[in-house]
Specification:
The structure holds 2 protein chains of 2 kinds. Chain A is α+β, with helices and mostly antiparallel strands. Chain A is built from 14 helices and 9 strands. In chain A, the strands form 3 sheets. A 4-stranded antiparallel sheet of chain A has the order 1-2-3-9, with helices on one face. A 3-stranded antiparallel sheet of chain A has the order 6-7-8. Chain A is globular. The two termini of chain A are 24 Å apart. By secondary structure, chain B is mostly helical. Chain B has one domain. Chain B contains 13 helices and no strands. Chain B is globular, with a radius of gyration of 20 Å. Classes of the chains: A alpha+beta, B mainly alpha. At the A-B interface, strand 1, helix 4, helix 5 and helix 7 of A face helix 6, helix 10 and helix 13 of B.
């Protein structure tokens, strides 16, 4: 059969962010692909070195539009540890509430996108409508819908008054009802089962060897969640469970995310109900002592790492951000091989890729030929180099 | 028949002009109903017309190296085929141009838009359109057989191959939808697949192959193709209504004349809209399946169900039941 090349991206209706797949297919089956994830290098890590700690927090919130609170919290909790600042429990609880609301809006968004990838637009519209409720809660609590601006070093910038606690709690049962409905839909909706089951399968061994994180790993039976394995902010004090599945396919990832939605709702509820008294912020020093730390955080997409090195000034010496999408890319490239062309969008979407957060290099070649790419065949070979070189 | 009335029938009502207006209305209804089910507001009444006019006025862009005459002709071919097919569908009463065997002609004409779509995809010279075009034809071979068989069953039972004849028979007779429920369901599924609506929008899967064969269509080519597609919905719904729901046929006690024509027309509207609502619900309730899954469903279940229906009709005819 003739091998055809299907270019997907950097501009494509299925992709909201720039990435390029060069898919080599026989008929409708993928035989190999080349992947270029580097279209949107923004130099945020370098910019972070130029700003003092107060101004770097808002910058880091802008690494990602969806997990903005994740980046902010990962950084402040790391820098607080270097400084030896003790944050009040109330501030930690508020950070947890925002973090879990963020996870909910991210997972609802993902569920809609995944449904849209298989042409099931009704679920897309429904989940995005319910996501509005979460967004409204976030706006009410933080003043913003996207970059919440809640974190500062030493605590949070806004308190949650009792009236808002009550109002937020009253909105949660409605969401709970919708989540039950979605769980039922994923189990019983025929076309979703047809398109999700057995698609993009990653075994537990593969998930471990390719270093997957987050819902992608947990859907393959890897019981790994930073919130449980290395608890931070208020996760140690709140009762909740890690959701895993043994399916390993897109269906499993959907089930895991819907399970996590329910868990997040539970965490938000217990945090709001058990909100401790006290100040929301403490004074933090302007400068940090020399030191280095790897701050881990469970973002909606998986484990997010901020490596922070300080040198005794009020600026970081080096900040390195490893986003969960980068950890998950190789697994996508591997499980795409042998799949149907029609399944590419949903398999890619299943890791919930966030590309501009991941982009770390820019290749400038005036000849216009060289592009950084990962080339993937049935036997995984990851190549960082120029086009076509193995 | 008076040539003047025949001309009026073909061009104005219930011919081309009515077909175009009704097609735009059904497109509106389809979008509105779907939007309401998805908790959206949906478009205003004239949106499909506005879209049509807007697209019609857009620049026509030729892909590099395209065979222009063929690329221009394909949407026209699709439109002409669908409009011709509509002349044989009973709207206010039996079609004046009906003849023995027009069912076969209509089915043939309804296949042409898909062929035109494949042609467009093939001529576009980009991979999305080519893949989409190949998918369109693959899909054609899957749904066409069960669809034809399902529509054949009423013809066998009625003993005539004229759509108007089959419709007239149902005036004093239970609808074929009741006598042949399996065939009716297969016909509806086949119609959904023919119109390339979810879950069978495989050829134009937006997230996979951009817009399939439609990708390189612009300006009036796109407008005509969209109109042909919307008209196909009317013709398809009208055809299924005529064969299975008695179409515009009124009971015998209604005196022939303007009253009967008006009642027939009302029945036509009600039945086609009812079919549209079913198709719209299916569209909203499902996601897109893969072409290999459609192959499984089509040949394993749909084709066999249609065959079963034809066999049942033959047996019933043999024993003289149900006719």
């Amino acid at each position: 059969m003739v091998e055809i090349t299907v270019p997907i991206g950097p501009q494509h209706p299925a992709l909201k962010e720039p990435v390029n797949f060069k898919v080599f297919a026989e008929g409708e089956t993928v035989v190999r692909l080349e992947l270029d994830v580097s279209y949107n290098h923004r130099g945020i890590e370098k910019a972070a070195e130029q700003r003092d700690f107060i101004r770097v927090v808002p910058l880091l919130e802008r690494v990602c539009g969806i997990c903005s609170h994740s980046h902010g919290t990962a950084f402040v909790k790391g820098i607080e540890e270097i400084m030896g600042v003790e944050v009040s429990p109330r501030a930690q609880y508020i950070r947890t509430i925002v973090a879990e609301l963020e996870r909910m809006h991210s997972h609802l968004l993902w569920l809609g996108v995944a449904a849209h990838e298989i042409g099931f637009n009704t679920l897309f519209m429904w989940t995005w409508r319910d996501r509005e409720v979460v967004q409204d809660i976030l706006e009410e609590l933080t003043g913003n819908r996207v970059n919440y601006g809640m974190n500062e070093i030493g605590g949070v910038r806004r308190d949650i008054p009792p009236a808002q606690v009550k109002k937020t709690l009253s909105l949660l049962p409605g969401l709970d009802e919708r989540l039950v409905k979605y769980r039922e839909m994923v189990r019983r909706q025929e076309t979703m089962i047809l398109r999700f089951r057995g698609v993009g399968k990653i075994t537990k061994a593969q998930a471990l060897s390719y270093g997957t994180v987050g819902p992608t790993a947990r859907a393959s039976g890897v019981d790994y969640d930073v919130r449980k394995d290395d608890p931070y902010i208020a996760y140690r004090e709140i009762p909740w469970n890690v959701v895993t599945s043994n399916d390993g396919d897109v269906y499993g990832r959907t089930v895991v995310r819907i399970g996590e939605l329910a868990e997040s709702l539970g965490i938000v509820r217990s945090c709001l109900e058990g909100l401790p008294d006290g100040p929301v912020t403490v004074d933090a020093p302007k400068k940090a002592p020399t030191g280095e730390i790897l701050s881990r955080y469970e973002a909606p997409r998986g484990e997010l790492c901020h490596y922070i090195r300080t040198n005794g000034t009020d600026k970081v010496d080096r900040l390195d951000i490893r986003t969960p999408t980068l950890a998950n890319w190789t697994s996508v490239a591997v499980c795409l091989v042998g799949q149907n062309i029609a399944d590419i969008p949903v398999i890619v979407a299943a890791i919930d890729p966030c590309l501009s957060c991941t982009s770390r290099m820019a290749v400038v070649d005036t000849e216009g030929r060289a592009r950084p790419c990962l080339s993937c065949t049935s036997r995984m070979t990851v190549v960082r180099g120029e086009d076509g070189e193995a | 028949m008076d040539p003047f009335f025949l001309l009026l029938y073909v061009l104005v009502f219930p011919g081309f002009l009515f077909l175009a207006a009704y097609a735009l209305f059904l497109a509106y209804l389809d979008r509105k109903v779907g939007a309401r089910m998805q908790h959206r507001v949906g478009p205003p009444l004239l949106q499909p017309l506005a879209d049509f006019v807007k697209v019609l006025g857009k620049e026509v862009i030729d892909p590099r190296g395209v065979d222009r005459p063929a690329f221009d002709a394909a949407p026209l071919l699709a439109l002409a085929a669908v409009m011709t097919a509509f002349l044989y569908v009973p709207v206010i009463g039996p079609s004046p141009v009906a003849f023995q065997g027009d069912l076969v002609l209509v089915l043939y004409l309804l296949t042409l838009p898909t062929v035109a779509l494949f042609l467009v995809g093939w001529l576009s010279r980009i991979v999305y359109s080519t893949v989409g075009g190949v998918r369109a034809v693959t899909q054609l071979f899957i749904y066409e057989v069960p669809f034809f068989l399902a529509l054949l069953a009423p013809a066998i039972a009625a003993g005539t191959w004229s759509i108007s004849g089959i419709t007239a028979l149902q005036a004093g007779h239970p609808w074929f939808a009741l006598l042949q429920p399996i065939g009716f369901v297969v016909a509806l599924v086949g119609l959904q697949a023919k119109l390339e609506r979810t879950p069978f929008d495989i050829p134009e899967a937006e997230t996979e192959i951009v817009a399939g064969p439609w990708t390189e269509l612009t300006g009036r080519r796109l407008a005509l193709m969209i109109l042909a597609n919307e008209m196909s919905l009317v013709v398809g719904a009208g055809l299924v209504a005529a064969l299975f729901l008695g179409g515009p046929s009124v009971p015998a006690w209604v005196p022939a004349g303007p009253v009967a024509a008006l009642a027939g027309f009302a029945l036509f509207l009600v039945k086609t809209i009812a079919i549209l609502l079913v198709l719209a619900s299916v569209k909203v309730m499902t996601g897109r399946i893969r072409i290999d899954q459609l192959n499984d469903v089509g040949w394993k279940y749909l084709a066999n169900a249609a065959l079963l229906q034809v066999a049942l009709v033959l047996f019933m005819g043999f024993w003289g039941v149900g006719t």
